[in-house]
Amino acid sequence: MKRIDQDGLAYYQFEMWPGLKHGIFTRLGGLSQQPWASLNMGGNVGDDAQAVRQNHLKMYAALGLNEARACTVWQVHSADTIIANGPVEGRRWLALADGMVTDQPDTPLTMRFADCTPLLFHDPVQGVIGIAHAGWRGTVQGAGASVVRTMIRAYGCQPGNIQAGIGPSIGPERYQVGEEVVEAVQDYFGATDSLIRRDPADGTAYLDLWSANRRDLERQGVEQVEIAGICTAKHTDEFFSHRAEKGRTGRFGAVLSL
Question: How far apart, in whole angstroms, are the C-alpha atoms of residue 51 and residue 28?
Fold first, then answer.
């Protein structure tokens, strides 16, 4: 990924999409006060609502996106994907879901993160984009695979044409998980090799969300995958991290638009 500094904001873009309007924004350059300082996009974490609203406007303005057409969902750690044709009147979110796809121009898709994995999608042949929110629950339910299948079913996309970006999230060295997560990984993927690492000292398990989501996408036939490799728990100077900041923190934004 490449880092872009603009008007006090900082955001990252995938190298494979130089012509696609998109960004995974850091926590820098917003109006929120501690502990949500400063570009917090989360509206349900205790932050001032007006500050959150202004932060969203700053994000859209940085990419020249139409805020009035922006679409989002109420994220519930699912693998449900919806088709977004535009915002719903009188409501800020479209549905309870963790994936969105669209072929509509000027229709930004946006979600919020704080250790879970941002998954961004683009099919340049069919002119379709998608986004998903994948923590461990979404990953072992196939949140990324759900977006791919929806792109295929709704828009006739071919898996070989779909490009996917795996954004900053908690990395494999920091994401300690319980045995119930290990079992869920085993059940979904059929194996835990290269996905679960055991600490040689005490045997505790660590999950690699980046590799897990890449494997999930490759099982759907997606061959073009770019991984950011940026750990949010290591880089709380730039990203909000629910794990590293013990739950009292904000949410960074990811957005893309045709």
Answer: 13
pTM: 0.97
Assess contact for 230 and 1: CB atoms under 8 A. yes
Tell me the domains of the chain and their CATH numbers. 2-175+210-257 (3.60.140.10)
CA distance 40 to 230: 19
Which amino acid is residue 135, in one-letter code? G
Residue among 12, 51, 49, 6 nearest 30 (CA): 51
166 with 226: CB under 8 angstroms? yes
User: For residues 252 and 112, is the Cβ–Cβ distance under 8 A?
Assistant: yes
Best CA proximity match to 77, nearest among 99, 93, 94: 99
Distance CA 77, CA 132 (A): 10
Query: pLDDT tens digits, residue range 175-230?
Result: 999 999 999 999 999 999 999 999 999 999 999 999 999 999 999 999 999 999 99
Distance between CA atoms of residues 193 and 206, nearest Å: 12
Residues 51 and 87: beta-carbon distance below 8 Å:
no
CA 91, distance to chain mean position in Å, is 22
Helix, strand, coil shares of the chain, percent, nearest 5, are 25, 25, 50
